[in-house]
Write a structure and sequence with these properties.
Layout lengths: L1 E5 L5 H10 L3 E5 L3 H9 L3 E2 L3 H7 L2 E4 L4 H9 L4 H4 L5 E4 L5 H13 L3 E4 L2 E2 L2 H6 L3 E5 L2 H14 L2 E6 L3 H29 L4 H9 L6 H11 L9 H18 L5 H16 L10 H7 L23 E3 L7
Parallel strand pairs: 1-2, 1-4, 2-3, 4-5, 5-6, 8-9, 9-10
Antiparallel strand pairs: 7-8
């Protein structure tokens, strides 16, 4: 199967790298040709337009920073849509809006092609090693068609239901991760101010009911001083705002979500939208005149889960076995 990949950013570049590493016939495209050069040197082909890619490939994957960017790539002049035909697949791996992916998906399916939304979850470091989790929304037939590609990209793959369902679950999980990050920042600053050793604090959280994936990854990069998880404050605001829109459409009067959006918008106003997301802790550090860093803490983020040679299709009742 010939695969096209549009969007070679923090996550997309790592996913496209997995496709190359696994021997797929890959065509790439990005607004910045320079980021594509390493892929071209390893044997990938270049598409001058999304339409050209869709005409040449069996499956086109988009992994872009916003719903607006995806819409421009799919339905713009010389867009993906104009190059699709019966039997082909558009796979949206961006973190995007449920309503928008359904709208674009309907246009794709009207041309006889399949549409799936298949965002990833688990962090950029796991995207690079193939340990990432993937949600996939779309018909069962479309899911089965793209499964061989998804298994080259991630380890745990969950068919979530109809098109758009994966996008809802993705922004929900990002919302939960954001809430966890903010509370961890408060916990670390409070523990430091109370005289606790931060290495000991990290271990106490890790072996307790307060532990989480976010603690084991983002607390590490806070304490080792790098603050780098390849994710920025503007992307946090985009993702949690998409979750808020899901809740608004359902008429759910959320209380924590608006506060998180306010906190990160304040962080953007202070430090800039491209500031690394764990540096949201700087709001408290600056206010309290305190630095949260642990001398001797492991300098690199670790992942206790080894690189996976295989994959797991996560069962959900009878429908996903």
């Amino acid at each position: 199967m010939k695969i096209g990949f549009i969007g070679l950013g923090n996550v997309g570049g790592k996913l496209a790298g997995s496709l190359l590493r696994n021997g797929f016939d890959l065509t790439v495209r990005d607004l910045d040709h320079k980021v594509a050069e390493p892929f071209l040197e390893q044997g990938a082909k270049w598409a001058d337009t999304p339409r050209e890619m869709a005409e040449a490939c069996d499956m086109v994957i988009t992994c872009l920073p916003s719903p607006a960017a995806s819409a421009a790539v799919v339905e713009g002049d010389d867009g993906v849509l104009s190059g699709l035909s019966e039997g082909k697949v558009w796979a949206e791996m961006s973190t995007t809006d449920e309503a928008e992916v359904k709208r674009l998906g309907a246009l794709v399916m009207a041309r006889g092609a399949d549409a799936v939304d298949c965002p990833v979850s688990g962090g950029c470091h796991r995207a690079a090693t193939g340990n990432i989790a993937i949600f996939c929304g779309g018909s069962r037939d479309a899911f089965e068609k793209v499964l061989p590609i998804l298994t080259a990209l991630g380890r745990r793959i969950l068919h979530t239901g109809e098109l758009g369902s994966a996008s809802v679950l993705k922004v929900m999980t990002n919302y939960l991760a954001t809430a966890n990050l903010v509370t961890l920042c408060e916990a670390l600053v409070t523990s430091k101010s109370a005289g606790m050793d931060l290495n000991t604090t990290f271990e106490a959280i890790k072996i307790s009911s307060g532990n989480s994936f976010v603690h084991e990854t983002e607390s590490q990069v806070i304490l080792n001083g790098s603050r780098d998880i390849n994710f920025t404050m503007d992307l946090v605001v985009k993702d949690i705002s998409l979750f808020q829109e899901v809740a608004d459409r359902a008429g759910i009067p959320l209380e924590v979500s608006p506060l998180l959006i306010e906190i990160f918008k304040d962080g953007m106003s202070r430090y800039g939208g491209r500031e690394l997301s764990p540096n949201i802790i700087k709001r408290l550090e600056d206010t309290c005149g305190i630095e949260i860093q642990a001398p001797g803490f492991p300098p690199e983020m670790t992942d206790d889960e080894p690189e996976a040679p295989g994959y797991e299709v996560v069962p959900v009742g009878r429908a996903s076995i």
